[in-house]
Write the structure tokens for this entry.
Amino acid sequence: MEEIIIQSPNGNVFGVLQLPEGKTPAPLIILSHGFGGNHTLDMDSAAHFVSAGFATYNLDFCGGGFNSKSSGTMLDMSVLTEAADLNAVIDHFRNDGRISDIYLWGASQGGFVSAYVSSRRPEDIKAVVLEFPAIVLQDDSEKRRLPDGTFPEVSSIMGAKISRKYDEDATSFDLYDLLPAYTGPVLILHGDKDPIVPLRYSEKAQKTYADARLIVYPGQGHGFTGASKQDAMAQETAFFLEH
């Protein structure tokens, strides 16, 4: 396990690289956490992928969450700053001789950002996995728009404070308009009882992508537990191995 700090336009991006034993160059899966999270949350998925022969890099987005080891605070963060961080990480590993193909994995807001980045540079990304991608965040931001067309200087959501920039960036484009640009394979996983991101957002994404499959977990919320969690990791690993 190797700690690597990568420079992005937003400062230092901290992350943890793991390499599979006896296999270089190795295909790399970049794991992007959700709103308020950090690199530690998805280490179980990373371990699963490493055991299947993949390298993994779990990053902390700049200002991306609580207990982050990267630069900035959540008041500095938006989906576009996170996209810039992810682009910097991709650029770094494209020039690392230990790495071959690059795959993206993202959960919640990290899924949104992974979808955005892969649609902007499709030739660089072999395949994408999205767990309950938070495409709803654009509608959520729109609801915070004031009568004069602007957004509050600071808003509180999910126990964190975000700035006007977060809402301005989130509403500056429609993600669904961008998704068809990524023609590689996509796997979307979503629970049908998700209280934060309704399933319909992923259903629309699946229909919008050129090549996407959607797995729905009955009774699961915003995050998978128990047998559904184990199945999701198995499905994702098989998907990455296939592509």
